[in-house]
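MODEL INPUT / OUTPUT PAIR
PAIR INDEX: 1
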Amino acid sequence: MMSGSARPSLPGGAPGHVTTRAWWPWLKRIATWTFFGLVAWLLVHQARTIDWGEVLQAVREIPLPALLAALLLAACSFALYSSYDLLGRHMTGHGLGARTVMGITFISYAFNLNLGSLIGGVAFRYRLYSRHGLDNLTITRVLGFSMLTNWFGYLAVAGVAFFFWPMALPPDWKIEADGLRILGATLLALALAYLVLCAVAREHIWEIRGHELQTPALGMALLQLVMSCTNWALIGGVIWFLLQQQLPYPQVLAVLLVAAVAGVITHVPAGLGVLEAVFVALLSHQMPTDRLLGALLAYRAIYYLLPLCIASVAYFLTEVRARQRRRAADIGRP
């Protein structure tokens, strides 16, 4: 994505446009903090009623085959996500090897999950890619295409889950299944619109508010769709196995998708507490809370903490090798 020329201001200062720019950030802040307050209230409310001894016992009672299946699906998910940046390599034409690209993506993803997107997904990518000689514009395009791949698949999976298998909400909630189906249809329409955009674009360059947006060809967009949908399905499968398959898989996946957006909105690193609050709020009427939280604690250990430990070691080794290369280069200078 490349910046174009700045758009000139409207005559007379465009008071309507200025007013819109003034109130919109405040509206977003109010909505974000309102949502955050709701999640915080859910956390406090649920924490007071939870027997944490029973939660730990529920973790210990997860069968070994379920844990192994969850570990396998988590490994497949990380391997698949680590290949997202290979699509960005194809789009930008940079020459880094596949192992290097996947290693950088894995490290960034693990830190992204635990520390937030700005530190993990963005800062680590820029640092590691720049170490290998990529310029900022190329890194930005790779990062942007990876994020696009992730959320394109989210639209499709969430659309299918909400439209065809709307979750069974708690009885005291006043939301009908038809509302979820409408949301699902909207998400599917957005995903389809992206595919149509990629199919009809001739040069795949679009001018949007003074910026140029590059879209892939239809074949690449379909590959994005398959890879991202599969990854979201794998993540849902991790939790489903840890719940010992006692709830329908589509419902578990749908709740995970809701929790993913909740974590993004609240900006809480690792979605700490947000994931648990959403699952308890939406599923505690079907499964004991201690069983839910036990499965989610195991999920955090498998999908967050274990990859973070591996990524920390890998990042330390990359830093050591980078210093060794610098020292060798300094020694070789006259």
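PAIR INDEX: 2
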Amino acid sequence: MKPIIAPSILAADFANIQSEIEMLNQSQAEWIHIDVMDGLFVPNISFGFPILEAVHKHATKTLDVHLMIADPGRYITQFKNAGADVITVHAEACTHMHRNIQQIKDLGVKAGVALNPHTPIQVLENVIEELDLVLIMSVNPGFGGQKFIQNTYRKVKETKQLIEAAGSKTLIEIDGGVNQENAAMLLQSGADVLVAGSFVFSSPDPIKTISSLKEVVY
């Protein structure tokens, strides 16, 4: 099975966002990853509803919205209305994680939970059957272009074991520092979705780079 490639527009050229989205539409990427940061849960601010609405206007791919924000339940309906097809919240930001998952699913959107590098996968034991997606952060959240954390491989394997033990069809997504060098081992470990930002948008030929990730042998 070939991986789902989800380029992160955090690394895109925002002065030419329409052309960037149209480029992704023509590529082999299935998803477009949208990192929303509030400057509170993470030490950076990215973008909110107007940008998502603009992306949604031009995109023909699944919009994969990653909420790196505090108390995400306040805004889930608004993100759905702005065009999100997948909404992922952080376990560390959710006082009532099960409630937030149900909130997302009740809107007819796929629900994901993200884990920071220090967070053990055991926090998902009681909700794994409810999830469409587990997002493993392979860098500390907040900034693009960071170095990949090697412990991610072990964490992906543990997550895969948890999913299989529950008889779930939950996908595993990796976000942070993904490139041609680590993609094969991530897929061998059990990953299904690869987020790539700087690796795609900083390359001379983003469409070719996306294709190369899609064709990784593992």
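PAIR 2 NOTE: The chain has a mean pLDDT of 96.
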